[in-house]
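> example.struct
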């Protein structure tokens, strides 16, 4: 597996990076850490482009990026990278790539590939370009206080699965698995099972029905999930609730929960106009949210 961890400035990215590295390490995935820097002012854009072209033409591998160095320091502090004689085990030194992309490639603690990449431009557009250039299984993003714009765009328009990191805490998280009778929920269930086994954590299964005649379906989903989790010796509880879906999830979510769900199966136009459950949980909730696609 290959995970993309997206970070911003050094200080407010530390919690997102630590959270993302813990998930990445437990699942033994390769990791790419992406930093998106603001666009260069239009007054200096031509000079910046010329400088990038020169860097690409040079035979040496060198990019002096303050943020790349800061990310490297954080990776060392989290003991995520392999050290040889007190230095990071480097696969290739920082270098300029096409399209204003900089990359630095090192080895993880267990031999995983760890890339530090830097792009320039709009955050959502840069993350989307990154996921089109490279195949990722999971995109991990911190949730800024922007009124939910980033959360909505990332969940709705990024193709891989998405983990929105909100209020990261140094605790053993439990999974709150939200199920309905859909194919996307079944994929979320399989991913949650794998995470629970590797993270050695428990799963609280939440099945919500809006109308009385849907109760039997919710109970069946809960029973099926219980059998699956029991087969793999995963500690679990089953919760059957009735009411509006978003309100029920927000009420059940405890501070130590990582909420897991599938994406909305509504059309993009419908989601743009009316929103979706994953986006609302990502915007209004206080917990990390994993949307399995």
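> example.seq
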């Amino acid at each position: 597996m290959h995970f993309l961890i997206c970070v911003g400035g050094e200080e407010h990215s530390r919690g997102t990076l630590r959270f993302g590295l813990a998930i990445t390490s437990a699942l033994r995935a390769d990791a790419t850490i992406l930093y998106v820097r603001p666009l260069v002012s239009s007054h200096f854009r031509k000079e910046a482009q010329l400088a990038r072209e020169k860097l690409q033409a040079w035979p040496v591998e060198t990019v002096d990026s303050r943020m790349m160095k800061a990310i490297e320091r954080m990776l060392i502090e989290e003991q995520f990278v392999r050290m040889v004689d007190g230095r990071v085990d480097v696969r290739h030194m920082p270098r300029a790539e096409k399209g204003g992309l900089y990359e630095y490639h090192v080895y993880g603690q267990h031999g995983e590939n760890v890339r530090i990449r830097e792009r320039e431009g709009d955050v959502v557009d840069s993350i989307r370009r990154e996921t089109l250039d490279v195949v990722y299984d999971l995109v991990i993003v911190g949730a800024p206080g922007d009124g939910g714009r980033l959360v909505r765009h990332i969940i709705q328009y990024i193709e891989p699965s998405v983990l929105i990191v909100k209020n990261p805490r140094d605790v053993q998280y439990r999974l709150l698995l939200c199920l309905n009778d859909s194919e996307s929920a079944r994929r979320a269930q399989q991913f949650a099972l794998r995470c629970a086994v590797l993270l050695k954590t428990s799963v609280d299964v939440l099945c919500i029905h809006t109308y009385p005649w849907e109760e039997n379906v919710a109970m069946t989903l809960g029973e099926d999930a219980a059998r699956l989790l029991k087969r793999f010796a995963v500690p679990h509880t089953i919760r059957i609730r009735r009411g509006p879906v978003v309100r029920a999830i927000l009420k059940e979510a405890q501070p130590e929960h990582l909420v897991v769900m599938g994406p909305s199966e509504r059309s993009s136009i419908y989601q743009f106009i009316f929103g979706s459950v994953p986006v609302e949980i990502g915007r209004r909730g206080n917990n990390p949210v994993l949307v399995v696609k």
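> remarks
The chain has a mean pLDDT of 86.
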